């Protein structure tokens, strides 16, 4: 046998060995090697698709990005809660997300709002329905607006129509705003955000809401009247308000939208007489009074609206995923159920650590435990689904106290409101929409300090130290001689993110072998081929 031929055979043998090594590495994945509750790759994944809420879309998109590197392909379209519930009922998606359960009948179309497909509700994230706005004094955006719940209800039922209304001035301790028409921006589509907002108005201000709506109860379709503007989706509501022609507008969206857009939100009065914004802490405090319907795991929020804690944000709630539970669901396979189960494990545990940064609030222990109960229905439908070690003990959730799971860590450490947030005091100069708490220090945080001395009866915004206050027309609230801008943007969110769910060890071992194989193929094989070529050339030259 020639030397060249023997070298060629050695190379081929080497390639065969590499193939065997690769096969051995892949075959070494055990059928079940759980770590942090994540199933092994023995349970294959398949793409899952969902539709629904825009209220929770921003955090859901974040979780989808997190799990993509784990091999999970999750697709989600924010089309509104009503459309999401319908898509699930029609069997065109694998899951849906909504802020409210099926209502029986869709009030707009008259069609059934229910599902014959077996399902379960599963809480996924908490948050606050906020009121973001564009209101300028001269060229300066107001960032510390305060409104009572009654004022909010009157604005969205067209009883208060101008920003210089006496009730708004009273809410802001005498600070008067310009005589600008108020333009409420509402949702045009069937919306869980609308349902959350109107449920609150119906419960707390029925004498204001019900004559406007024409009946009692919540609605997913806001009854647009007068100069109100209707937009589809939370992102379009936000874009309208922050747009070039948005001065005078106010709309309702989940706090994540203004927070991520760098836009202010209204501080809403609570039962303790403080004006608060829906930070992750204030929502966590409010939801300590949430009750759960044991039959459906849906939320009962009356006690949340009336929580007497000075830190509580009244319009706090949470969102649900709707998951399929039937063993013979035509859309579901073992791979799809496994993807859904692993995605939910990340969402309920490590994914909750991102909630605060994105303008939401993490779920509490009882809701996460309820979520795990619902996830188990995926395995009940298909025993091949792997759910090893899924419980609160393995869950990296920032509300949990490892020593006492009955404590809500966020609620325990939530800061008390500043004295300037109390009714009859302030208003605080701290700008809103950053997630940071208010402060009593003049000019600290936000971009407050731009409102001037206001009308009679209060000092309005205090300017930042060293800044000259603007001169304001006492009748219109317009700036006639501007001083320098007060305050500076507050520091980062007071919130730490736990690490993402750990990689599966089987994945690490597999890719470790593949890295060795790749190194061999890149370093050793080229040298062997070069050696063969040289020998062939030498042999040819010697003939």
TrEMBL record:
Residues 1-27 form the signal peptide. The keyword Transmembrane helix applies. CDD domains: PBP2_PstS. Residues 425-439, 461-474 have a biased composition (Low complexity). It holds the Pfam family PBP_like_2. Residues 38-344 form the PBP domain. Residues 416-494 are annotated as: Disordered. The chain crosses the membrane at residues 511-533. Residues 443-460 have a biased composition (Gly residues). The keyword Ubl conjugation does not apply. Keywords: Membrane, Signal, Transmembrane, Transmembrane helix. InterPro entries: PBP_domain, Phosphate-bind_PstS. Belongs to the PstS family. This is Phosphate ABC transporter substrate-binding protein.
């Amino acid at each position: 046998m020639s030397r060249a031929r023997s070298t060629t055979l050695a190379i081929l043998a080497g390639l065969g060995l590499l193939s065997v090594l690769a096969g051995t590495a892949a075959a070494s994945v055990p059928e079940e090697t759980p770590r942090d509750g994540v199933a092994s790759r023995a349970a294959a994944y398949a793409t899952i698709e969902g539709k629904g809420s825009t209220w929770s879309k921003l955090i859901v998109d974040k979780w989808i990005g997190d799990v993509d590197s784990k091999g999970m392909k999750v697709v989600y379209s924010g089309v509104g809660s009503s459309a999401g519930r319908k898509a699930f009922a029609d069997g065109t998606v694998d899951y849906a997300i909504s802020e409210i359960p099926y209502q029986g009948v869709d009030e707009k179309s008259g069609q059934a709002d229910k599902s014959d497909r077996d399902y379960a509700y599963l809480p996924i994230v908490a948050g606050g329905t906020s009121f973001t706005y564009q209101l300028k004094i001269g060229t300066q955006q107001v960032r510390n607006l305060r409104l009572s719940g009654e004022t909010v209800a009157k604005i969205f039922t067209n009883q208060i129509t101008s920003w210089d209304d006496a009730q708004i001035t009273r809410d802001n301790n005498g600070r008067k705003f310009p005589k600008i028409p108020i333009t409420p921006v509402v949702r045009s589509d069937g919306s869980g955000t609308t349902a959350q907002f109107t449920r609150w108005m119906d419960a707390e201000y029925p004498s204001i809401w019900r004559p406007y709506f024409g009946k009692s109860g919540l609605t997913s379709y806001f009854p647009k009247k007068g100069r109100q503007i209707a937009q589809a989706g939370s992102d379009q509501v936000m874009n309208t308000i922050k747009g070039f022609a948005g001065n005078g507008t106010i709309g309702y969206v989940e706090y994540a939208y203004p927070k991520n857009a760098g836009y202010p939100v209204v501080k809403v009065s609570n039962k303790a007489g403080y004006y608060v914004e829906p930070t992750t802490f204030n929502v966590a405090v409010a939801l300590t009074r949430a009750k759960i319907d044991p039959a459906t795991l849906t939320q009962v929020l009356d006690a949340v609206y009336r929580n007497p804690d000075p830190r509580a944000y009244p319009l706090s709630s949470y969102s649900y995923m709707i998951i399929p539970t039937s063993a013979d669901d035509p859309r579901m396979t073992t791979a799809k159920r496994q993807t859904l189960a692993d995605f939910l494990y990340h969402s309920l545990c490590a994914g909750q650590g991102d909630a605060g940064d994105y303008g939401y609030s993490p779920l509490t222990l009882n809701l996460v435990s309820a979520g795990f109960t619902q996830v188990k229905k995926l395995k009940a439908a298909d025993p091949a689904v792997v759910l090893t070690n899924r419980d609160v003990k393995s869950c990296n959730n920032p509300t949990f106290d490892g020593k006492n799971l009955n404590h809500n860590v966020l609620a325990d450490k939530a800061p008390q409101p500043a004295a300037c947030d109390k009714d009859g005091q302030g208003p605080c100069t701290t700008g809103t929409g950053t997630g940071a708490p208010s402060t009593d220090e003049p000019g600290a945080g936000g971009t407050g300090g731009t409102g001037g001395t206001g009308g009679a009866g209060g000092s309005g915004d205090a300017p930042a130290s060293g800044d000259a206050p603007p001169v304001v027309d006492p009748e219109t609230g317009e700036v006639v001689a501007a001083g320098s801008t007060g305050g500076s943007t507050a520091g980062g969110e007071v919130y730490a993110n736990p690490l993402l769910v750990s990689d599966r060890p089987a994945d690490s071992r597999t890719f470790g072998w593949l890295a060795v194989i790749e190194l061999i193929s890149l370093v050793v094989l080229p040298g062997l081929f070069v050696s063969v070529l040289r020998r062939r050339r030498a042999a040819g030259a010697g003939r």
